[in-house]
Amino acid sequence: MTDWLRLLKPSGSPEELGPLQLAWLGDAVWEMHQRLLLCRKPAKSKELHKTVVSRVKAEAQADALQMINVFLTDLEKDFVRRGRNRVGRGSRKVEIATYAKATGFETLIGWLFLKDPARLAQLLDRLEETHPTRPIATNKNEPY
């Protein structure tokens, strides 16, 4: 389900963006990816929405980062570190360490989306291979 990313050409200048800007973009890309994964499965929109929310929350993003961390290059790990270190107080609902990991993950996704969409697709495919029946996050109400 990453064909749409593979068709993209690198665009923009991610080097000109700060980690939080990249994280903001990465969050949107991650949510789009999750929605595309789910749209193939018949379910009520309310169930789909709950599932997407469970997959884009900070805990799920931190889990995703942990799953792909072994596949990251040193440069990619540096972008994760930059995003992680830019977290201020974070969210009141999530532990700061989890929130920081999620922000690092989002920063990486945003940077790769602009810099190397094919590499981003490769990493997202790795996530799906790791957990083919349940890509990430746990939600008993997921339509799987």
TrEMBL record:
Principal location listed in the UniProt entry: cytoplasm
Keywords: Cytoplasm, Endonuclease, Hydrolase, Magnesium, Nuclease, Ribosome biogenesis, RNA-binding, rRNA processing, rRNA-binding
Top-rank taxon, per record: Bacteria
Compartments it resides in: Cytoplasm
One GO CC annotation: cytoplasm
GO aspect biological process, one term: rRNA processing
Pfam hit, one: Ribonuclease_3
Signal peptide coordinates: none
Active-site residues per Swiss-Prot or TrEMBL entry: D27
SUPFAM superfamilies: RNase III domain-like
Assembly behavior: Homodimer.
Function comment: Involved in correct processing of both the 5' and 3' ends of 23S rRNA precursor. Processes 30S rRNA precursor transcript even in absence of ribonuclease 3 (Rnc); Rnc processes 30S rRNA into smaller rRNA precursors.
Name of the protein in question: Mini-ribonuclease 3
Organism: Prochlorococcus marinus (strain MIT 9211)
